[in-house]
Each structure stands twice: as structure tokens, then as C-alpha cells.
């Protein structure tokens, strides 16, 4: 067994590998760029080596720097994590020449499966079902449109060396095929240094289901069940679960056995994942094989009890797998939610900044429910524009799917994150979505259910009453505290704290009264029996746990104008708490009107201007491309919402912009 390994990665996955290595008694070496000097993975490792500036192509993607770090520290092996150098055969070869073990598959498998065109040919030869498509190279935009038309729209345009949703576009006509080819090619060069593109049939109403494999160097290859990864946005996975709510045992077995056949065809060793697209009739087709550890591997670990990182290390050290296919049992259900630095209220655009507050829910197992949070950040960490926007992976495990989903909903509401835009509200709302809870999924779920982007879930009658109760109690606690301030006119403050209050939420008003005894608040609402409420909240806390007549509720709390901002299960409301007299006056106040920005194209996220497609004085049409902004390794095409004339363009390609900076103005 190795005595010291180097992790050629950063963030969450570097921390994850360090945990398993530490449990195995193996020392670890971290590498870091200037942007990650104070990162969590650097602090966790036994040693750390600086490898360059923030851009990945000047640090984490430089194989020579990783090898030099191994020599400097005496690391005997390298775990690549996912992304960066994890699927680069040349890196594996370079390590082998230096006598350093690669904790992953051999060069042959990486080369064969790392190229999507080659991998599909091998899959077909191994008897694996494949999607119809064009596996040859594509010359230009016109050639792409011709091939797409021959296959039949819709088609998927993909970078051959791609992954993580980058270099991928769906085209429904010739025009989209041309533009998709251009954008995919550009992203492929930027992200992978390889501009080869292929096109395949896009299957409508598809599910994305993948099989986890583990194989050793002694001829043993085992599949560890499947993962459902259909909840995606722009081909980037957002929520995963294991097992799939769609597969039956016969389909699971067939997919697993085909995956094993493919792995054996390339003498695969280590952990790997075979991805399939599955139609509504449970017909499945090979997409690709990821020759690395997947982001979503924790859900498989939770339902099988297998530490995949540990097994990868043991296989790389030449050990035999300690279990057989018959030993693999799927226990319960696991769900993973990816916490991204993306603002759901701005169409999930990337967000950067410092985590001024980062308080994940408590990890562990209670009453048969497990909570696990894989992360590489802590309070005070900076989310950089240079790397992937994923902040953490929150997982829950329970005996049934709905129990795991409900546990996830509660855990998300207990997760406190401030300082950046993030997708916690969306994830929380998703856990209540009927279609998700019923397991009626497809890769188009987010686009279909949120066609205009995500907005806070509108409160219903139950949640309005719940938030009214919470608002009343919060204001009562604060009022009682203010009454204790030295020098306060206690009798008047105490009187105000105990008088009737009017709570305004979502255009409704609810009058309530509170009596408190021994830390129990008796809340009286019109037409209701008194409700007994207790809470751990103290003024200044951002999360409050309320027991409302025996029903536990986790609610995020923030002071707001004349009351509180309250958030739970994707609902985001302002609860204003007034005395009856002030409530009457408040009804006479006009709402503030937001400024008009309809004549401006604002930068939707912090990013780099890649190109500007128009000039001052140009007349543009609805849907016409105006500019391309790159952020967090993704190119975002900004298009005109309506016809207009460009009056001013104050920026140029290469400029770095903050969110809401002006890109161009239009004549009114």
C-alpha cells in the first residue's frame, strides 16, 4: 500500500480523497494555485505545494508541475479527482514514466473511452446499445447542419473530449445546428484543448441513468447499481439519486452487464461510470464512459456501503476487490443536491464572492436518516471565477425514496449560505415539486417546469398562516428584549409587546395575539384554537427552528423593513408586523417602482466579454446574438429580447465586468 499520495485537484473532491486516505493511514499532499492558497483542502492535507497562478491552464492543468510536486514530496501515487487531468492519457503516461502510480484506469482505457467517437465504436463492438449518430469528424458549420438534417432533428452536438456539460448544444433546426457547432467548438477548445465535434440523435423525454463500476487488475469487474441523474440544467447535473425510481430489476441487470462487458473490452481497472440515456419504454443507449470518479459517487456509497475512493486506491496498489457481484446489495435510497454558486433568480447565472456565512446542516445518522455534506469550503472562503461553481454536495439517505427526499428538504432549509448567489432556494422548492416527488423525470425537467426561470414559490394558505405565526413570535421576542434595555420605558414597551399585531404577507393581513409562559408562546389567530409555539431563535440568528403544535419547522430569518424576510421550502416572503394603527396607515403607502432598465443590456453575471456581435448604430432583431460572456468556464450567448437600435457600446472584448454593468444601450 502507498504511504503518501498527491491529490491533483482542489475543492470538494480533494477534501473527499484526503478523508479516505487519512482513514487508511496514508499521508496526503495537496497542490494549490494562488487563488486557493487558503483553501480547505490545503489545510487538510499533510503537505501542500504551490503550483501557479489562478487560471487552471497555468496551474492544475500543467502535468509537469504535478509530477514535480510528487518528486518534491515523495508522493508515490496521484489521485486526479474529477475534471482537470483526471481523464488525460498523456498525464497517466507521464506519471508511469516517472514511476508514479496513477489512481485510476490505465492509458488504454482512458484513450479508448475518453474520446466519445472511439468509445461508441468500441461499445457497439462489445454489444452495448448505442444512439444513432455521426461518429466522423465534422468540417464546418455547413457540414454540421447537413449531418444534423440527415440524422433528423433534434440532435445533440457534442465535443468529443467533453464532459461536465461543456461543449454541448441541442439543435432543432439548421440555424441552431450551425450556431451550436460554433459555440461547442469554441467551448471545447477553451475547456479541453480539443475542438473535435460529433453529432447524435437527441432522444426526447430521456432519462440520464448511469452505472457505477469498480474493477481490479485481477480480472474482477463489478457494477454497483445505478444513479438517476436526469435533473439537469444546460446538461449539467443538479440533483442525483440512487437507485433510479424508473428502472426495474431486469433493466438494471441488463445495463449493469453491458457496462461490465464494455469495461472488460478495454481492460478497465479502477472506478468508472457508464452513462446511458433511457427512453420512456426503458430502452437504453450508451452515451459515454467516464474513466474517473463521478461527482455524484456519494449516493452510490450510501446505498452500497462501498467507499469508492478507498477501493480506487487499493486497486491502484494492486489489491484484489474484497467483494463479488453477489455481495452487492442496494440498501435504501440516497439523494444528492449540488449546491452551486448560481443565482436561481437570475436564470442560474454564475455568482462569485466570499462566503460571509456558511453553516451546513449537522452530519450524521439519526433515526435511520443520514445526512452527509461533501464540500471544500468554509465560512470566509472565496468562490472564484476561475473554477467550477459547485460549493458543496448535500446528501441524504433513508429507507425509502420519499423519506430521503423529505430529509433533503429539511436539510436544505437548515443550510445557511450568504455572500453569494446560490441555488438553495431552487433545490428546496424542487423537493416539494409533485413531478419530482412522483419520480416522473426527464433531462428536460428544469426547462419544462421552469421555462421562464425560477421564481420564489408562491405561498399557499398553510404557509401564509405558518409565516404569520413565525413573524408574530419573532417580533414578540424582539419586543420583549427591547423592553429589557437599560433606560427603556419598560411599562410602555411591555404593553406594546403584548398587544394585538397585524401581520401582512403576500397581500394578506392576519391579526394575532401572543401570551407567553415558561418559554411557550400561545399564539391566537382568528377562528383558531390557541397554538403552542416554542423556538430556539434569539435576536441576530439567521436560522430558527420552530415547534408549532408539535410540527418542527426550520425557517431562515432575516430582519426586513417593518418585519422579517422568511424563507422555507423555496418560499421567500416578507412578513411585516404592525400595530393595528400602523397597519391602517401602511395601507395608504404606495409601493416603490423599480427603475426602468429596458433599454440596457446588462452583464448578467461577473465575467469576461468574449465577443460583441453588433456595432453602434446597428438595428437588431429579436433573438439576434448581441454578445458572448464567459464565466466559470461556460460561454453565455446574450440575445436581443426585441427589435431595437444600438446607441452605445461602452465595453470591448476582453473586458471583465461585474454583474449588472452595462454592455450596450439601445435608443428609446
What percent of residues are in strands?
A: 25-35%
Side-by-side strand order of the widest sheet: 14-13-10-11-12-15-23-21-20
Instruction: Please identify the structural class as seen in this structure.
Output: alpha+beta
First CA to last CA: what distance? 70 Å
Radius of gyration: 27 Å
DSSP strand count: 40
Helix content: 25-40%
What is the 3D form?
globular
* Sheet with most strands: 9 strands, antiparallel
Which stretches are poorly predicted, pLDDT < 50 over at least 5 residues? none
Mean pLDDT: 92
Helix tally? Answer: 18
What do you see in this structure?
It is a single chain. Helices cover 28% and strands 33% of the residues. The chain is α+β, with helices and mostly antiparallel strands and 668 residues long. The strands form nine sheets. A nine-stranded antiparallel beta sheet has the order 14-13-10-11-12-15-23-21-20. An eight-stranded antiparallel beta barrel has the order 25-26-27-28-29-30-31-32. The protein has a five-stranded parallel beta sheet with strand order 3-2-1-4-5. A hairpin with a 2-residue loop joins strand 7 and strand 8. Helix 4 packs antiparallel against helix 5, helix 12 runs antiparallel to helix 13 (424-430) and helix 16 (461-483) runs antiparallel to helix 17 (490-498). The longest helix is centred in the C-terminal third of the chain and has 23 residues, at 461-483.
